[in-house]
Structure formats: C-alpha cells, structure tokens
Amino acid sequence: MKKQQLFVSVLVMVLLVALPAAAQRTLQIYGPVGGAGRTAAFRDFIIPKFQEIHPDVEIQLIQSNSSSEKLKVLIAAGTPPDIAVVPQADFGMMARGLYLEMAPFIEKYDFNMKNIPTEAIKQFTLNGVLYALPFDGLGINIDSLYINLDLFRAAGLTTPKINYDDPYSGWSYDQLRQTAKRLTRDNNGDGVMDQWGYAPSQGNGNWFRLIWSFGGNVVEETPVLRSVVNSAEVIEAFQWMRDMKFTEQVTAAMAQFPQGRVGILEQPLAYSSNQLATVTFDWTLTAPPYGKGGRWGIALNNPMGIMATSKNKDLAFEFMQFWLSDEVQIYLSERAVAPPQTYSAASRANFIYTDKPPYDRSPFVFGRSRSMPVWLEQWPEILAAFRPEVDTVWTKPDVPLRTITERLHNQLTLIIEGKI
Fold first, then answer.
1. What confidence tens digit (pLDDT) does each residue in 131-156 have?
2. Where would you tag: which of 91, 183, 191, 367 has the fewest CB atoms within 10 A of its CB?
3. Contact 102, 130 (CB under 8 A)
4. Domain count along the chain
5. What would the DSSP string read from start to end of 126-186?
6. Residues 6+ positions from 293 with CB-CB distance below 8 Å
7. Residues 387 and 336 in one domain
C-alpha cells in the first residue's frame, strides 16, 4: 500500500513538472498613470482587482508626460502599447489611423454606452465613428466656482440657487461682476487691497466657455469649417474678462484663494483635494454664471483607445470596461484620485452631497456642457494660435480687442485653408 501511495505521489509530481506554466499575457497601458495617488491606486487596487479576473495577465504601465511625444517614439520604434491615453488635443491625430473603432467591442461585450456622458462620446467621435472612451477629466463640467463662505457672510452675500434644467438660473455674468466688486476690499485702510472678488481660470477651456456663454464661438463646422472668432459676441466676452481685471480691478491669482483672500475661484474638481484639504475657512461650490448664450460647462476628457497594432485587442477593451466600472470609478473618486467618468458613479448621493466642504458637488455633475472641437484635424494648430491671443487679452490692455480677434481670425482661416 505504501509503495502504491509513493508511486502515485511521484507520478503527480512528474505531471506537475511536465505541465506548461500558465500562459502569461502582457497588457501595456500608456498614459498619465503616475503621481502619488494614481500610482498607489494602480498598485493597491486596480491591477490586483483586474488580475482577479485575469490571473495570467501582467499589466505594464508606461508613464507619459503632458504630451504624446513618448508615444510617438514608441510607435516609431515598433513597440506601441495596447492602450494609449493621450491629451484631449491629440484625439484627432489618434483617430486617424492609430486607434481602433470602438463599435465592434461595444457590441461584443454589451457595453453600456448610456452610462458615458454625452459630451465625452461626442469628443471621441470622428465622422460618426467612436474611437475612444474617457480615461480621466470630466464629461459634464471641468470648471466650477469655489466660494469662500466666510468672506461671503462677512459681506452679507449668499450664493445663488441653481436650476440645472434652466441655463439662465443662478448668477449672470453681470451679477458675478457686482458680487466680485463687493468682495474686493481694503480691510485695514492702507490703500492696498487685502482681498479680491474673483480668481478666474486661465485655461483654454474657460475661455471657450466664456465665449459660448456670451453667444459666440471660435470656429463653426457647418456648412463648412470656418473661423467666427471675429464676432461681436467674442469681443464682448473678451471685454468682460478684461474689465474684471483692469477696470473693476477685482481679480487675483488663484493662489490667493487657499489663503482666504479671494471670494470666488474658478477651478476643476481636483483642486478641492489638492489645494483645500487644510484650509480653515468654510467653502462650497456653485455653477458658472450665464450670459445671453446661457450657462455652459466645459467637457474635458482625455481619450483612452486601443492601438490598431495591439496583439491583445479584446483584453485591452476588457480593461477599459473594467476601468469604467462603478467599482473602479467610485474607488478613484472616494480617494480624490480622479473624478468619476460615468453617470452612475457621479450621480450617487454620497458623492454629490457631503456634510462638510464642498457640501454639494452638483455643479460638476449636472448641467449643460460643450466640448472643444478636438476631433478636427487642425485642432492642435487652432489651439496653438488661440492661446497667445487670449493671453494678450489678459495681459495687454492697450491692444484693441478688435485687433486681437481679427488677427486670430486671419490665423485660423489660414490654418483651416491649409496655408500654414
């Protein structure tokens, strides 16, 4: 009997040695996967959870900077990743031959597209074809107004009530101007301002949102792509911003807000966890103001797509589907790593409502939003021309706004016509 048991044990050991090791697959993900919070999230939660489903998969993260230059090097070397996350402005480049179409995977895996914000889908669609899903950013509204409640109370001010079904509820731009004037003060009478009313975001998205709210646009795509930046509405929007700084003198740098010296700040959701964790004043959030074009949020997501050269296309989509699951999105948002990318994760009550600042994250979840036209082939050049001109609006009050808009209009026209 003992000999028989010994024979069986030896046979089992031989078979185990002879069996091939479980096949290992490598999934390479390129993008903004670093930073203390995101690195820890991948290490402690995302990779282990995904490997519970796919124990044979090794995930390799390739950290990018704020551009796609490293990705271009990998492509040129013949070693592109399976999944690439790139800056929003580079979507048009990726959709023209580098990314795969999403539709076959969405159908095969019965992926719930109704859970993805409408503007995120619009951002990643070219000629009616969806090429990516959102990795990070925010599909509803990337910027909202942060309110120093202590300064508001001292000035006898309250924040407006918002009806997100009405794009003309809340503050108008003129009312925001008047509120900022009341908040700007020389508290000790020495002739130098000690607090200011307004610290605007100077990101590209904020300028676009301002233009849309005043009823203007930078480019129109129908019936043909053309520049419309030289309109009266764009000049009016630029004039409002310039007046806030140079005429009313109510603006300050955003660094003054955490110090308790600014009443209203314009910033994205991530700002609350990065900059306001230790402040001692009371604060909350409210929606952006409205103009004659209504109130607009800016939708700003970085695209996550499958490279056409990937050898693990289905596995890549399974990871994308996993990334957009409630399990992952709630984990990331609760740890302030990233705002939720799906309706189901963003609209849950325990994300929106809190018993301490910010009290209510509704401005980041509800409302109308628009996307900058990142799908345009000329978009990187359009943005590169746009940026220095709006900087001129903000920094050089002696340059006529008509001069700035006409100059930008001429540049955009040449870009659109392929002449530069």
1. 999 998 865 667 899 999 999 999 99
2. 191
3. yes
4. 2
5. ETTEE--EEEEEESS-S-EEEEEHHHHHHTT--PPP--TT-TT-S-BHHHHHHHHHHH-B-
6. 212, 213, 214, 215, 216, 233
7. no
Task: Assess whether 99 and 214 both reside in one domain.
Answer: no
Q: Which residues lie below 8 Å from residue 62, measured CB to CB, with a gap of 6+?
A: 28, 29, 30, 31, 33, 70, 74, 81
Write the single-letter amino acid at 172: S
Q: Contact 145/285 with Cβ under 8 angstroms?
A: yes
Beta pairing, strands 129-130 & 125-126: antiparallel
Are 293 and 314 found together in one domain? no
Q: Of all residues in the chain, what percent carry a pLDDT higher than 90?
A: 78
What burial class does residue 43 get, using C-beta atoms within 10 Å of its C-beta: 0-12 exposed, 13-18 middle, 19+ buried? exposed
CB-hemisphere CA count at 13 Å for 115? Answer: 16
Residue of 216, 337, 327 lying closest to 273 (CA atoms)? 337
Domain of residue 306 covers 25-137+301-353
Say how far apart CA 362 and CA 349 lie, in whole Å: 10
pLDDT of residue 59 exceeding 70 = yes
Sign of torsion over alpha carbons 35, 38, 44, 48: negative
Angle between helices 204-213 and 379-395 (to 10 degrees): 80
Please report whether residue 358 resides in a domain: no
> 3-state class of 66 per DSSP?
coil
- 20 domain-assigned: no
In a domain, 394, yes or no: yes
CATH code assigned at 158: 3.40.190.10
Band the pLDDT of 129: cuts 50, 70, 90. very high
Higher pLDDT: 66 or 23? It is: 66
Run of H or E residues at 264: strand 262-267
Query: 156 with 244, same domain?
Result: yes
Do 220 and 151 lie in a common domain? yes
Domain-embedded: residue 9:
no
**264 and 153 fall within a common domain:** yes
CB atoms within 10 A of CB 280: 6
Nearest 5°: the CA angle 295, 146, 209 is 30
* Other Cβ atoms closer than 10 A to 26: 12
Cβ count within 10 A of residue 256: 15
Q: Are residues 264 and 327 in the same domain?
A: no
- Asked if 229 and 378 sit in the same domain, the reply is yes
